[in-house]
Design a protein that fits this description.
The complex is a heterodimer of chains A (about 300) and B (about 325).
Chain A lengths: L2 H32 L6 H19 L2 H22 L9 H23 L15 E4 L2 E4 H23 L1 H11 L1 H6 L4 H23 L9 H16 L4 H29 L2 H26 L10
Antiparallel strand pairs in A: 1-2
Chain B lengths: L1 H4 L2 H23 L3 H25 L8 H16 L5 H23 L5 H20 L9 E2 L5 E2 L2 E2 L3 H24 L1 H18 L4 H27 L1 E2 L6 H14 L6 H19 L4 H14 L3 H7 L14 H12 L1
Antiparallel strand pairs in B: 1-4, 2-3
Classes of the chains: A mainly alpha (about 300), B mainly alpha (about 325).
Chain lengths: ~300, ~325
């Protein structure tokens, strides 16, 4: 393996990590403030992808598709918060898991009814169809755009959380929600807003992942579980932690899948490496999570408490 | 007898057990062998739910990864029979050994955390198992593997649905009896106390963590037995048994039935799988009804089917007799849960 391949895979890992961050940012804040476990976050990601695919079919504009995905999942998030989630904050985690598990089943079946069981096709927009030459090789412009969008969102959320009044309330809420509420802040409204913004980012992630993955029922589940890994590794409630952890998980997962089978072949015989390599590669992020939790149960970058 | 009749929360599940015992005979008499396999599935899920109930209902350990043990139990039979071993005792020993060991290791790591992190890490371990079996191409990988040699326990061969049914029924009755005893035994009291306030139990000089770990291990092993039976019933071991949605289904079964109750898992499995079957008869998109049903049941937040039945229990019959206050408290706790 040479340097360019490693570099290309690093970029792939970065792109995957950035997508994970879009999902993790909203989820970790709702976790942190209301300690709410939301398994339906993956469904919002999926719905975002479907909204984008439908909007793209009708308008042919990728920008409008992204807008539709963000707006659609924002409204869906608000509706979910109002109908079900807001009633669950006071309950224990078991009820959160149950109710949102029910929602996941519902949304998976709903898209099967509306859009059918076949994957829906979402095209890479023409102006991003090419490749960008970087350091001696060319990298797909679309994937590059995902990285840029993700980094912009990360920067934006950092500014929002660290430089604005709303951000101050979010940080205070993550540390001690009861105290913030006692000081006269409408923490429920704040959380509903956060939930909706988180849903919007999930929808954005789904829409952007649409052209490189297939848009189909159940697409949110695997990415949701990886996102949960990200949040736990990063430290629940910490957006900064979610960012670093998302990049770590994205890169570890991508590099593991790309190179682990080859590396195993160097040290063991081929048949064993061929069997164990892919198994180990797909388990890698979960192993990482287990190690992190066994070593630091509060996560790598816990929110300041 | 009259005392039993005044408590629907006890006699309804017992009646269900009695009816389940007649299913194979009725099915044979009416020529509907489908129902044997269907009710065998219910019984096996009830065993798995009993196992989860020990960790989740008694101990308050929200494990979102019990599908791991269900799958491991299935693959214990699958892998052994793949290598030409049909002896059921070997399958069982392999199943109990592997599930116990895996539960011990994963439990020891998971129990370092609590709350959300515990849910996530148990989920992560189940996913690890899922991806492990998906990528074992020699053993069918994604597609799973058919079990050519079902478990043979001496004269009892689990090749037919009826024999699986018989064994599963016995295992279920024994599990319910064992867990009912365990619930009020000192061990059960410790983990139930730890569910309410672990720090306080610790302060009483009882090493909570060890009890919780043991509960988790036993729960995993019993769940593995359910997996072994399930694989024999289907004559198939599949990675889809380890999917995260199966863990979710098991939690739903336990909660619908009545969290921490003795008969809850049985009633939950009956209602969950029964409702699934009925809804499937109406529409292939049954989940679009079933999902909101789960949400509504959660939002209503009652104590499950057993809790519902307990409302009809007549009060005076349950009044504590003139016994020491500790026993009275136990009775009261039983009534409340």
């Amino acid at each position: 393996m040479n340097g360019t391949i490693v570099f290309a895979q690093l970029l792939n890992g970065l792109q995957y990590g950035v997508l994970l961050f879009l999902l993790a940012a909203g989820l970790t804040l709702v976790f942190g403030i209301m300690s709410f476990v939301n398994l339906a976050h993956g469904s919002l990601y999926m719905m975002g992808a479907y909204f984008a695919a439908t909007a793209f079919q009708y308008t042919g504009s990728f920008g409008l598709a992204l807008l539709a995905a963000m707006l659609g999942s924002l409204l869906l998030g608000l509706a979910l918060e109002f109908v079900a989630v807001a009633r669950l904050y006071r309950r224990d985690h078991l009820d959160h898991v149950l109710a949102t598990f029910g929602l996941v089943l519902f949304f998976n079946e709903l898209v099967r009814i509306i859009w059918g069981p076949q994957p829906v096709f979402l095209q890479v927009p023409e102006f991003l169809g090419g490749a960008i030459p970087i350091a001696g090789f060319s990298y797909p412009a679309y994937r590059f755009a995902i990285i840029v969008v993700g980094l912009v969102v990360a920067l934006g959320s950092w500014l929002l959380i660290n430089k604005t009044r709303v951000g101050m309330l979010i940080r205070a809420g993550a540390v001690n929600p009861a105290m913030v509420a006692a000081l006269g802040v409408n923490i429920r409204l704040l959380n509903a807003m956060l939930f909706a913004v988180g849903a919007m980012l999930a929808g954005l992630a789904g829409a952007m992942a649409g052209p490189i993955l297939s848009v189909q029922s159940g697409m949110g589940e695997s990415v949701l579980i990886t996102t949960l890994v990200v949040i736990v590794i990063g430290g629940i409630g910490s957006v900064t932690g979610a960012f670093y952890a998302a990049l770590i998980v994205g890169i570890v997962d991508t590099l593991g899948r790309a190179f682990l089978p080859f590396m195993l072949r160097q040290v063991t015989e081929r048949s064993l490496a061929d069997a164990a390599g892919p198994a180990l590669a797909s388990m890698l992020v979960y192993l990482l999570m287990a190690v992190v939790l066994a070593w630091r149960p509060q996560g790598l970058f816990p929110a300041n408490r | 007898m009259t005392q039993l009749l005044s408590r629907p929360s006890a006699w309804v599940p017992l009646l269900v057990l009695l009816l389940l015992a007649t299913v194979p005979f009725v099915a044979q008499a009416t020529g509907q062998p489908f129902y044997v396999a269907f009710f065998a599935r219910i019984i096996i899920y009830a065993i798995a739910a009993c196992a989860l109930n020990m960790a989740l209902g008694y101990g308050g350990l929200v494990s979102f990864g019990h599908s791991l043990f269900l799958g491991l139990g299935g693959y214990a039979a699958g892998l052994a029979s793949f290598h030409g071993i049909g002896n059921g005792w070997v399958h069982l020993a392999l199943c109990l050994g592997v599930c116990g060991l895996v539960a011990l290791v994963t439990g020891a790591i998971s129990l370092r955390t609590s709350g959300i992190a515990f849910i996530m890490i148990t989920l992560a371990f189940a996913q690890m198992g899922y991806f492990l079996f998906v990528s074992l191409k020699n053993y069918g990988g994604d597609d799973g593997m058919s079990i050519a040699q079902p478990s043979r326990f001496g004269p009892l061969d689990l090749a037919s649905a009826t024999s699986v049914y018989a064994l599963a029924f016995v295992v279920l009755v024994l599990s319910i009896w064992w867990l009912a005893r365990l619930r009020v035994a000192p061990f059960g009291m410790v983990i139930r106390g730890a569910k309410q306030n672990a720090r306080r139990v610790n302060a009483a000089g009882i090493p909570v963590l060890r009890y919780q770990l043991l509960a988790y291990v036993m729960s995993g092993m019993l769940c593995g037995v359910a997996g072994l039976l399930l694989a024999n019933l289907n004559a198939f071991a599949s990675p889809s048994t380890l999917a995260w949605s199966v863990s979710g289904e098991l939690i739903v079964i336990v909660v619908i039935g009545g969290l921490g109750t003795v008969f809850g898992p049985l009633m939950g499995a009956l209602v969950f799988l029964g409702l699934e079957e009925i809804l499937k008869g109406f529409t292939e998109h049954w989940m679009v009804v079933f999902g909101p049903f789960i949400v509504i049941v959660t939002l209503l937040g009652n104590r499950g089917i057993i809790g519902l039945l307990q409302r009809f229990d007549s009060r005076e019959k349950r009044a504590p007799k003139s016994t020491p206050s500790a026993v009275a408290a136990t009775d009261a706790a039983q009534g409340a849960l």
